[in-house]
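can u pls check wat happens w/ zinc ion
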Amino acid sequence: MLHTPFQAPRAAALLILPLLAGATACWLHFAPPIKTADELRLRMELPAELGPYDSQVLLHCQNDPCRRSFPVSSETALKECPACGGLLSPIARSERDLLPADTRIARRLYHMPGGQSYTVTIVLAGADPRSIHRPQQCLPAQGYAIERQHAETLSLTPRRNLTLAVIDSRRGSDPSARFGFAYWFVGPHLETHSHYVRLFWTTYDHLFRNKVSRWAYVAIAASEPLNTPESLERLASLLRLLMPAIELPARSPS
Ligand SMILES: [Zn+2]
């Protein structure tokens, strides 16, 4: 016997969608101008001194055909690109082309002598939330294959856990060229490793608080895959030093 599917929810959705769209259009028309919230919970500066780690900044050539990057001790260590004489900037040319102008980026490379390297990037989104790109889209676009994605909770202090999204990735077809990528988001209300939680709160703030919240995106590229308790513990050791240096005390939401 043929079964006729129950159509009521679909019909209801078809009715509700134009209503919702109408309500949103109406709201957008009459809403007061949106304010940019400036609650920052992270410093947009990464420490040069960090326990036993050596640290360097990356300067990127802005000259389109060159686009080389140079690890140096400070942002003023090089005046111009040693390869082509082009202008240097801590922001890569590809990022500058892609990101809205009010996006802020801090980046530093930390290297444990005789051990692993970690490139830490903090991206602070501007009024336009497109500043934050999903690494699941960016990594494949740059030639990295995603092997595994998982969430990991690291214990930083007895009272402070941090949950990160972790991606184990491989560059090209070389199975030895593997590395780890970890990230999380820091918003005015909370920190989360989930894009969906961040998008929920961005929409909530927009609709109910009339604010564009500035989210920070913290990403760490590690020179080893983050797929063993030992590699995760090495990352936790870095974060135990890094977090107190970059976190600002939370303020109560207004
Ligand atoms: Zn150059």
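The pocket of zinc ion is lined by residues 61, 63, 66, 68, 81, 83-84, 86 (CB under 6 Å).
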